[in-house]
Design a protein that fits this description.
It comes from Streptomyces yatensis. This protein is about 35% helix and about 20% strand. It is an alpha/beta fold. The longest helix has 20 residues.
Length: about 450
């Protein structure tokens, strides 16, 4: 007996896997065959490989996100969180953005929560660190960096200048290397418009606990990427980590100490911790344990894929797991969608198998590395050609034709127009000016109170 008038397919998460799986299911499903419900705290999906370019101003932030309701018009989209799941009753508890929690019955379940930043209990990190998992963080980082240039250009205090112009990035994988490459590029361009700030005044520091950066593209290209960043003035410290960053005073395990207003944390990801409340079998690192069919082990009505899933990599062999990247997420989502339809109709499940096609990374305008796999042959590219491959691949992988065109339009305009270097730091607290204007003169003349948004932020 169905939990609703017609079966409900509940998709938990509206990221890459959730969006593409829901689209696939809706495409394959007969009219009225089931209800597809997508639950996510955000009403949009973020294409994370473009976050560094959005932070550098090469792509408009709005073009990096895909509105779920527009792309999934035949689905039920709920903005909120799934707090718990009762597998015996097949009921999920929904926590909406506002209001009381409620129960939502389902017949089939798709787990697509993705990953969150992997952090450690480092003193000062929570208060001073900036992540790079969402478009909000990318916009915030861009505004923050340009605001530091404003501060440095407007003060004569050398200590303030030095702290404002020191930028520390922790993590040398794709996210860290691409972000520091793009931000350094942007800061170099922006410095042309500041009479009291030069690129030589800035200090960029990249820290990683491993002995190399960009491990995804192989040791030779990773070494080239390392040397390329160093030639651009980036200090790279490998085989070390950050011990503390209280009040912006960064202390590294190798003994280096610097003061910085900008500490960007990109040291890996971990499965969404909410998975621990769902009663699902988890692997040693917290991923949902799945079969090659993407079915959660021990179930026949739950599927999982993407960064929150431990999916066997059949193309590599026994004991291997698919890495958490967009290449696998896209293809897993399609197989998952097909398998949900097959499971609903009582047909056999298909197994996921995909051979690695390589990896691409951009390190700023006209700079990048790429490893392209054709069968047993690996083609390694660097520089401008690799940068073209990076943009070409991710331009094609960007969801929806609408967003592809918008991103390409941004790139095309960027060929003829100079990069925007304006900081919109006030966007972090847009009501502050109005609050000051509306406050009583006597109160403003006495002790200036904190704006409501600041109080909320502080709490």
């Amino acid at each position: 007996m169905s939990t609703t008038e017609r079966p409900r397919i509940l998709v938990v998460g509206g990221g890459y896997v959730g969006l593409y799986a829901a689209r696939r299911i809706l495409k394959k499903m007969r009219y009225g065959e089931a209800t597809v419900t997508v639950v996510d705290p955000r009403s949009y999906m973020t294409y994370q490989p473009f976050l560094p370019e959005a932070a550098a101003g090469s792509i408009s932030p709005r073009h990096v996100v895909v509105p779920l309701r527009r792309v999934l018009p035949k689905a039920e989209v709920l903005t909120g969180r799934v707090s718990t799941i009762d597998q015996d009753r097949k009921v999920a508890v929904i926590q909406p953005l506002v209001g009381e929690t409620y129960e939502l019955p389902f017949d089939y379940l798709v787990i697509a929560l993705g990953a969150v930043s992997r952090t450690f209990p480092i003193p000062g990190l929570a208060e001073n660190g900036i992540g790079m998992k969402g478009i909000e963080e990318a916009i915030g980082l861009r505004n923050h960096v340009l605001e530091q240039l404003d501060k440095a250009d407007s003060t004569t205090d050398e200590e303030i200048r030095r702290k404002a112009l020191t930028f520390v990035f922790v993590g040398g994988g794709f996210a860290g290397a691409e972000t520091i490459g793009e931000i350094e590029d942007m800061a170099r361009d922006a410095a042309k418009y500041y009479p009291n700030v030069k690129r030589e005044d800035m200090r960029f520091v990249l820290v990683d606990a491993a002995d190399k950066i960009l491990p995804e593209v192989g040791p030779k290209l990773g070494q080239w990427g390392l040397e390329h960043l160093q030639k651009r003035g980036v200090e790279v410290y490998l085989k070390t980590s950050m011990d503390s960053c209280i009040d912006g005073h960064v202390v590294l395990k190798n003994g280096l100490e610097v003061d910085s207003n900008t500490i960007v944390w990109t040291a890996g990801v971990k499965p969404n911790p909410a998975l621990a409340r769902f009663g699902l079998p988890l692997g040693p690192r917290g991923h949902v344990d799945t079969a090659p069919t993407l079915q959660v082990q021990g179930t026949d009505y739950i599927w999982a894929a993407g960064d929150n899933a431990q999916v066997p990599d059949l193309a590599v062999g026994e004991g291997a797991w698919c890495p958490p990247n967009a290449q696998h997420a896209l293809r897993q989502a399609k197989v998952l969608g097909d398998n949900v339809i097959s499971g609903m109709r009582g047909f056999p499940q298909g197994e996921y198998k995909h051979a690695n096609k390589g990896a691409v990374a951009g390190l700023g305008l006209h700079k990048g590395v790429a490893m392209i796999v054709f069968g047993k042959m690996k083609i390694k590219l660097k520089g401008r050609l690799a940068w073209y491959m990076h943009r070409g691949y991710h331009g094609m992988a960007m969801p929806t034709f609408n967003r592809k065109i918008r991103v390409i339009a941004d790139w095309t305009l960027g060929m003829f127009l100079k990069r925007e270097v304006v900081s919109l730091g006030a966007i972090e607290n847009p009501r502050e000016e109005f609050y000051e204007a509306a406050s009583p003169v006597s109160a403003a003349a006495a002790v200036k109170p904190s704006a409501p948004a600041e109080k909320a932020k502080a709490s």
